[in-house]
Specification:
Protein name: Hydrogenase expression/formation protein HypE
Radius of gyration: 20 Å
CATH architecture of one domain: Alpha-Beta Complex
Structural class: alpha+beta
Organism: Occallatibacter riparius
CATH class of one domain: Alpha Beta
Distance between the termini: 29 Å
InterPro entries: HypE, PurM-like_C_dom, PurM-like_C_sf, PurM-like_N, PurM-like_N_sf
Number of strands: 14
Largest sheet: 7 strands, mixed
Pfam families: AIRS, AIRS_C
Family: Belongs to the HypE family.
């Protein structure tokens, strides 16, 4: 960026309460899926790149071609450790992009895979990662059709970073997005939350429980296809609650749709070992990342149908209805606690657990 370009950026116009103007340098929170990351997108990237496909700010861009409607999504993966209970950076790279396309209403088809490798990284580890990517792609029914490799000097990377970009075909008659939630809609989640983030942290912190916490890393396109086949246009919004967890995802939907979201905290499924790990580390499960779960906002008359479809699928057996879209407290997420009180669940500033995807 030239000095002249830098001088034209007016930080004083950026929004409160935590504007980017307070952070003249990038901090870890900018990549955490919270307020800082949202500010970066809203005030830096979006004004620079603004176009109709980008404006939606969903998990994938949707655009029309003469041959049909397509969805495109890209994501970069920097997780540490590279291998963890229930997955690896390779499986995560495939499943993460597949899921972003699927929750946008698309049938994932083709992926690219780009690798940034650090000098000295063991070739055997790279081979294991690539094999996991191959297996995940076959399970999801997608093909890796192009890619790139770059190598950086020793000490200038962290083993391996992976970027995947995916393209999928939009299903006819399906229109979903973060701005389409309507008052009265039911909110469902496809299973227990917090599994991925706590699997990563249990390895990092050396935590031991009666049973090993495993990541939920999985491709959801099959499960989502079943839901759309059963409920179609009654599905208004789908998101996969990754960075920032369920809290960030539902806050973003509430803001985009200008609605309130009311949750029943007791209905949110959390595994006992994940809850114990969160309590030990002082974390709230609703803020912890997931990599194999989806949140659905559907017309109330179809909520039972969607729940039945979810629970009939191996990846949705612990699905639950957890709340309602409301006209009360617009642009806010409020949960009814087990004690009968209400608490506001705000969007986090950054990520409680960095480098989890």
């Amino acid at each position: 960026m030239t000095t002249d370009t830098a001088a034209t950026i007016d930080l004083s116009t950026w929004s409160c309460p935590l504007p980017l103007a307070d952070y003249p340098e990038i901090v870890m929170g900018h990549g955490g899926g919270g307020k800082l990351g949202n500010e970066l997108v809203e005030h830096l990237f979006l004004p620079a790149f603004r176009n109709a496909a980008l404006e939606n700010l969903g998990d994938a861009a949707v655009f029309d071609l003469a041959s049909g409607r397509l969805a495109m999504s890209t994501d970069s993966f920097v997780v540490q450790p590279l291998f963890f209970p229930g997955g690896s950076i390779g499986a995560l790279a495939i499943n993460g992009t597949v899921n972003d396309l699927a929750v946008s209403g698309a049938e994932p088809k083709f992926l690219s895979a780009s690798f940034i490798l650090e000098e000295g990284f063991p070739l055997a580890q790279l081979a294991a990662i690539v094999q996991e990517m191959s297996a995940a792609a076959k399970t999801a029914g997608v093909q890796i059709v192009t890619g790139d490799t770059k190598v950086v000097e020793r000490g200038h990377g962290d083993g391996v970073y992976i970027n995947t970009t995916g393209v999928g075909l939009l299903r006819a008659g399906i229109s979903v997005g973060p701005a389409l939630a309507e008052p009265g809609d039911a909110i469902l989640v496809s299973g227990t939350i917090g599994d991925h983030g706590m699997a990563i942290m249990s390895v990092r912190e050396g935590l031991e429980f009666e049973s090993q916490i495993r990541s939920d890393c999985a491709a959801l396109n099959g499960l989502i296809a079943n839901v759309l086949s059963a409920a179609g246009g009654a599905v208004h919004t789908m998101r996969d609650p990754t960075r920032g967890g369920l809290a960030s995802t539902l806050n973003e939907i509430a803001s985009a749709s200008n609605v309130g979201i009311a949750l029943d905290e007791r209905a949110i499924p959390v595994r006992p070992d994940v809850r114990s790990a969160c309590e030990l580390l002082g974390l709230d499960p609703v803020y912890v990342a997931n990599e194999g779960k989806a949140a659905f906002i559907v017309a109330p008359e179809c909520a039972d149908v969607v729940l039945s479809v979810l629970q009939a699928h191996p990846l949705g057996r612990e699905a639950a209805r957890i709340g309602t879209v409301t006209t009360d407290h617009p642009r806010m997420l409020v949960a009814r606690t087990a004690m009968g009180a209400n608490r506001v669940i705000a969007i986090p500033v950054g990520e409680q657990l960095p480098r989890i995807c």
